Amino acid sequence: MFVEASMISRLMPTLDAGRFSRKAFLLLFALVFGIIAAATPRYGTYYEEIIRSGVDVFILLDVSRSMLAEDVAPNRLERAKSDIQDLLRHVADDRIGLIAFAGKPIIKVPLTTDHGFFLQTLRSVDTHSAPRGGTAIGDAIRLALRAMPPEADRERAIVLITDGEDQESMPLEAAKDAAERHIRILTIGLGNPEDGGRIPIRDQSGNLTYLRHNEQEVWSRMDESTLREIARITEGAYVAAGTRMFDLGQIYADSIGRMQGNVHQTEQRQRLRHQYQLFLTVAVLCLLLYIIVPEHRSLVELS
User: How far apart are CA 180 and CA 173, in angstroms?
Assistant: First the structure.
């Protein structure tokens, strides 16, 4: 409503223009200081002692076509992905990374504590997640070694999940490199080591067939010997999962996870102090004054 100045004194004789202005400024100040407090300003430094512990863990996941064999339900790859999800419950304080490998390894997730992002990426992994056919276990181990920080301020480990069929990538030499850096490797062998399993594929019409070579169906068998030797060289552990159910999270906790208690380093880290309290206090005081201060004069003041 717009009213001429001469009419204000008649319509609202008790209104005090000065008090009204002061209340308006109090409300404005309360809003300004409230916004500043909400922005959580920080200034002034202090030093905080940080205890650093945990393990850097790279998961090496075989995504070659042999991992589609169905001797493990629903197939080796999907079973491995399910087991890795169970593992996440045991790495709350650890940095975890993911390397998918077939004929060539690819870092899908670098070392991170963002387990939500890790899980999202894991779910999208399939046999097309790494280029070239084949299984290069040694190359995957070497890539994990390069991707890990060189400083040994945390324990480091590798979890290798595969059917063990390697195509001349010299995995034992890579395991020796890991051992020299005191990096343990937990090897998980998936698949039937005796009968093996056929590798299902879809033809152009979408019909289910099985991979053939020289007119013979290809049967993929889990190769235990290489995985056992990798674990032995690195003082890790070998789990002959085969086709049975197992709890990868518990296996990790019993073998690799126990290393967490071996490393506890402290460091002084510079921090900025939170200073929102002062601005919030001013904003609250302005609001209280806004409520308390009247904008109208009393009848006694008018008489």
Answer: 11
The residue ranges of DSSP E strands in the chain, in sequence order, are: 42-52, 55-62, 95-101, 105-112, 155-162, 184-190, 197-198, 200-202, 208-210, 212-213, 216-217, 219-220, 237-242, 265-274
DSSP strand pairing (155-162 vs 212-213): unpaired
pLDDT, tens digit, 9 for 90 and up, residues 166-207: 768 899 999 999 999 999 999 998 877 766 666 777 666 666
pLDDT score of 215 more than 70: no
Q: Read off the pLDDT of residues 105-137 as tens digits, 9 standing for 90 and up.
A: 999 999 998 999 999 999 999 988 988 777 899
| Residue 127 DSSP class | T
Q: Classify domain 51-265 at the CATH topology level.
A: Rossmann fold (3.40.50)
Burial state string for 239-262 with b = 16 or more CB within 10 A and e = fewer than 16: bebbbeebebbebbbebbbebbee
- The 3-state DSSP class for residue 245 equals coil
Give the closest residue to 198 by CA, choosing from 95, 114, 292, 72. 72
Sign of the CA dihedral running 155, 161, 164, 166: negative
Yes or no: say if 121 and 110 are a contact pair by the CB < 8 Å rule. no
**Coil vs helix vs strand at 37:** helix
Using CB atoms within 10 Å of the CB of residue 78, give its burial: 0 to 12 exposed, 13 to 18 middle, 19+ buried. middle
Domain spans of the chain?
Answer: 14-41+275-302, 51-265
What's at 240, amino acid-wise?
A
Q: What band does 47 get if pLDDT is binned at 50, 70 and 90?
A: low
**Sequence-separated (6 or more) residues with CB below 8 Å from residue 134:** 64, 102, 103, 167
Mean pLDDT computed over every residue of the chain:
79
Structure tokens at 68: 């589609």
